[in-house]
Amino acid sequence: MKIQSMQDLKKEMLSVARGERKASVDVAQISFESVEAVIRVLTPENRFLLATIDQKKPASVADLAKLVKRAEPNVSRTLGKLEALGFVRLRPGAGKAKIPEVAIHHLTVDMDICLQQDRVAVA
User: Fold this and answer.
1) What is the pLDDT of residues 83-119, one digit of tens each?
2) What residues are paired with 99 via a beta bridge?
3) Helix, strand, or coil (residue 90)
4) What does each C-alpha distance from 71 to 39, 64, 74, 76 come to in angstroms?
5) Pairing state of beta strands 88-92 and 98-102?
6) What is the pTM of this model?
7) pLDDT, tens digit, for every residue of 49-88?
8) What 8-state DSSP symbol labels residue 86?
9) What is the CA radius of gyration of the chain?
10) Are 21 and 50 in contact (CB under 8 A)?
11) Contacts for 46 with CB less than 8 Å, ≥ 6 apart
């Protein structure tokens, strides 16, 4: 996971496309515009969802929806976003079921409050 403005990401992509430089080693990492953007994803509701997955180990998205007392389509949509951001994995289960798993347990933010050169490390 890395912190990179959309403007910087665009410059980097265009430079690579033009052959001016090679793609960086972290090119496949998920990129957030700011630390604040990461924090906005980790709402109390989403953290509760992640904690429930980690502690209860639901066998499917439907089971998870029951555990958190939310509609299954709502839970599925939230899990899709969390999966796209790397916080969750959805493994194939029985039939069409998907088994949610927490992919990131710890997130460390390193902020230089004067230079705005923030870094995020995950474990």
Assistant:
1) 988 899 999 999 999 999 999 898 887 777 787 777 7
2) 91
3) strand
4) 24, 10, 5, 9
5) antiparallel
6) 0.74
7) 999 999 999 999 999 999 999 999 999 999 999 998 889 9
8) T
9) 17
10) no
11) 78, 82, 87
